[in-house]
Amino acid sequence: MGLWEEHIRKVVPYVPGEQPQGDRVIKLNTNENPYPPAPGVIKALREMNPELLRRYPDPSACQLKETLAGYCHLGTDNIFVGVGSDDVLGMAFLTFFNSGKPILFPDVTYSFYPVWADLFGIPYETVKVTGAFEILPEDYRRECGGIVFPNPNAPTGICLPLSQVEDIVRQNQDVVVIVDEAYIDFGGESARNLIHRYENLLVVQTFSKSRSMAGMRIGYAMGSRKLIKAMEDVKYSYNSYTMNYASIVLGAAAVRDDQYFKETVGKIIETRERAKGKFAGLGFSGTDSRTNFLFVSHERVPAAEIFRALRERQIYVRYFPVPRLDQYLRVTVGTDDEMEEMFGFLETYLDS
Ligand code: PMP
What we know:
Blueprint: H1 3-6, E1 26-27, H2 39-47, H3 62-72, E2 79-82, H4 84-96, E3 103-106, H5 113-120, E4 124-127, E5 147-150, H6 162-170, E6 177-180, E7 201-206, E8 219-223, H7 225-235, H8 245-256, H9 258-281, E9 284-286, E10 293-298, H10 303-312, E11 315-316, E12 318-319, E13 329-332, H11 336-351
Parallel strand pairs: 1-11, 3-4, 5-6, 6-7
Antiparallel strand pairs: 2-8, 7-8, 9-10, 10-13, 12-13
């Protein structure tokens, strides 16, 4: 091995869900929205001026930030935007978790957290969720270098009430607490209004789930002016132009089309609640998900087998072959038709 090889940074990367191609695939494995982007987005896309692509985009993504700021009743200096919430979260890890003390996150959670921690050399400790996969705020009352958790949590779908999120933030005012709200629009109460009371709170959201724009890669963080300024400084030390022209224009159009947003989120919630009943009727149990996915386990048939059988039928769901999760499937809420097809198959399969 050459010396140069020895000195390469070695990392174990995050593994994103499969992106199978083809029209016949029913894709319920990466928590995408089954509905198309808002009509306002499609109109803005048609009206976009391709000549502008020769220019650099606005590095501050002002149009997107202003639209979000108006929507969230915040100042533009309370908002940071990035290339999906993965980019925003990665930037937040790099900016805020720099004390050398271990940061804390749940042991069952978004599997990107340990990857960023390892990449940036941030020590971490995981905090056990209960047997029912619950996060207990009192477990986060201890010295640490920062805290990050999704609310609702992934892949469990369980949502903490806002009072318990606030408990965690209040008990840890010496460090930055990041609440990853990728799924909050599907039934939780956002912590974003708490940023006025807690300078150390960063709330991260995404356009990938509730706004049907995973392919556009838009995420954002809301926090005190000091937190946002610190993130901007790190961003401008790495890549000034994270947001491309199309993301800025189409992201702003998505936020403006609020009626469509509310309608589609409402439909997904209705489909999810019906699906809970159907899963139960087929012998599955699961958590009380407040997200656009369900986390379910069958009373008799191992999850790995159901996963394989579904996959053969071109129905993709997510399976995590790791301790504690390996009896569960994470099933994204699709359209009613997609869910019907999946349940139709499961009925026959589980009968045989
Ligand atoms: N947080 C959580 C909890 C997620 O499940 C995801 C989706 N993989 C993300 C953040 C990142 O989503 P995106 O980068 O598409 O905004």
